[in-house]
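REVIEWER CHECKLIST
Item 1: Sequence provided? yes
Item 2: Single chain? yes
Item 3: Sequence as submitted:
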Amino acid sequence: MNSSRTPALPFGSVAILGAGLMGRLLAMSLARAGCKVEVHEAGSSEAEGAAARVAAAMLAPLAESAVAPAPLVRMGHHALARWPELIAPLAQPVFFQREGTLVLWHRQDAPEAMRLARILQGTCEAVPELPAMQSIDGAAIAALEPALGTRFAKGLFLPQEGQLDNRALLASLLASLQQHPGVRLHWNSPRAPEDFAPGTAGQPGWVIDCRGLGAKPQWRALRGVRGEVIRVHAPEVKLTRPTRLVHPRYPLYIAPKPGDVYVIGATEIESEDLSPASVRSTLELLSAAYAVHSGFAEARILEIATQCRPTLPDNLPDVRQPQPRVLQVNGLYRHGFMIAPAVLDIVLELLSEGRSPLAERFGLPGMRTLQLASCQEKAGTTP
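Item 4: Structure as written out by the authors:
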């Protein structure tokens, strides 16, 4: 399948469970392919329960390779080219940039930075399609980010990595779905796959479950990994690209968004606790951000948010078919925006062809041998 085009699909209707990032992307793509789409979401249209709402939406496959294996890196590289294609036809503009990632460290953390540099260099050798990492000095850092001045003597620059505005994207996908005549949206409508009999009279041709942790009763291996982010308004800072700070205990990131808004994050806790962020983690995040740029001292805190990311035991995404005409898509973990277009294209390949060459190319162990049952019906033979 040419992933830049939506494929022809051999069925006429689909029910999508969950209206987070994957649910909205799939609903939009399937509607454009001519399917009648019904979306059922347990919450409201604001996606308040979606992991995608509490995210920095960085598209940084090389930077993430510090914790992500090669399949995710390949998926992230694929997604960088796909995001503009997915965003372009949406009803509202979405901030997107590919200005690279800047990695910085204080002198006392130089050994940890060198260890990270070796990991990233190994990634570049294993995934040669990635742009090469660049070691830069203080003058080059100041040229890339004048607001940092001479605060940092050395750094790494990862060209062509990107980011987008996660909440603007969710809102634009919502507006596009609301305008599409082939889409019906059902809010506060919790559904599970067993509520449907796909392929029978009056039922959808397929059911696609994108509920994240909401699918745990049907996918017991799922677990939640807690993340915390702080959104601040910091007009004195003026960073222009995602910046990461090497630290011996946690890798801080600062992602600039439109309107002098910055998303600051780092914490990752093996817990499904959704209580508010602790004073300790909040102080650590804000102190580390202040150490990058003193302008954060006068920033105004807009939000301190927590959410749990749906994660499978190997920390890789998966698509499985528990029964004919039912797909489960899950496990995007902390890499949702980085890999969502790749997961989308895999699902579209599976639905149109019954298998996914992309999954094999990426090296995804669970998906590359998946062969869908009941995917080759001729158009018009399913409801």
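Item 5: Key structural point noted by reviewer: The chain is about 30% helix and 25% strand.
Item 6: Recommendation: ____
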